[in-house]
Amino acid sequence: MSPSQNASAEADPSRPSLEEAIINPGAVKINVQGAYIVDDQPETPDSPADEDGIVYERKDIRLPHHTSVVSHVAVDIGGSLAKLVYFTRELGSESEGGRLNFIKFETERIDRCIEFIKQLKEDHERLNGSTLGELYSETEPMQFVEAHAGVYPYLLVNIGSGVSMIKVSGPQEFQRVGGTHLGGGTFWGIMALLTGATTFDDMLAMADRGDNSGVDMLVGDIYGMDYTKIGLKSTAIASTFGKVLKMKRIAERQAEDGADLGEDPENAQPVEFRHADMSRSLLFAISNNIGQIAYLQSEKHQLKHIYFGGSFIRGHLQTMNTLSYAIKFWSKGEKQAYFLRHEGYLGAVGAFLKRQPQNWGRRNSIEDSAASKQFREDLAREIRPSQQ
């Protein structure tokens, strides 16, 4: 854009100011014709590099027919992760459209997230100028490809640090109906205490290598076989971590028996449990618990479809298989679990699309409240005598 065009745009009273547009950005209209997910895309010199606590998702949503400017980013900051969604044009030609990009930061790296957003802003101004992109009103909301018939109503289970369960009755009709505090943050925290692992992905990798029968008490440990009378296989978990105390007591008794035979108890080998086995056990416990609660909520609210999202899932096959099995088991095969492709970015995508109403947020609500005005007046009277 030339300087003269930029000046005329700034002088146009019909266009909102930058500050006003940031506060009230309006709904975003995206051309989703021909959109598709780019799976397993290779890294390029321009791709953000993964760092400790930062993961760039290589499954962008390609938008080949969206050519207008998108001048904002969206971030969903949770208890454990900050998820960021932003639009970029395709390299080489504006006529080739662009794509939605996804990147997540551990919340303790929020400063790095802010730096990344600042860099996106600078890149946007360099490529598109500093004027605002095309804004759309509430009367022209974003349009998506129609979902398959009968999708509503459904239960949306969002698994982050905790778990929220939302009954979705239609495009603008939803209600939180339940949840649980045992979620991804629980898995992360207990694993950090038990194993010293620091990253969620390391913990999931441990679970892939583990065998939960090393710490869990199974049905077969109690009955020696399947308990067919109530439909339980011998490999079903009877008690999470239930084998730990039993094995420790056996080791203590063996040490005592050795002492009676004149052996030094100090030389007895203590029972040890593999970190990988603990990880697999805990992952099963949390996933099974969420699956059962989700099933019960779907029964209570007569919902046939159950969709799972949230950063706890991360496309991890073991997690998805456990949730799927729980839904299938408790529903006796009548219900099925579904999983979102960009499961961890549901809130960020919603923020990307959602119009922010005027006078939204803590700043305006506090500044405009009578109590706040009275507090400021009282504070001013207290300050004046101290300054005299």
UniProtKB/TrEMBL annotation:
Q: Name one GO biological process term.
A: coenzyme A biosynthetic process
**Classification via Gene3D superfamilies:** 3.30.420.40, 3.30.420.510
Stored SUPFAM superfamilies: Actin-like ATPase domain
**Superkingdom in the source lineage:** Eukaryota
- Recite the lineage of the species: Eukaryota, Fungi, Dikarya, Ascomycota, Pezizomycotina
For this entry, the protein name equals: Pantothenate kinase
Q: Which GO terms describe its cellular component?
A: cytosol; nucleus
Q: Which InterPro entries match?
A: ATPase_NBD, Type_II_PanK
Q: Name one GO molecular function term.
A: pantothenate kinase activity
Query: What keywords tag this UniProt record?
Result: ATP-binding, Coenzyme A biosynthesis, Nucleotide-binding
Alphabetized NCBIfam families for the sequence: panK_eukar (TIGR00555)
Pfam families xref list? Fumble
Instruction: Give the residue ranges for region: Disordered.
Output: 1-20
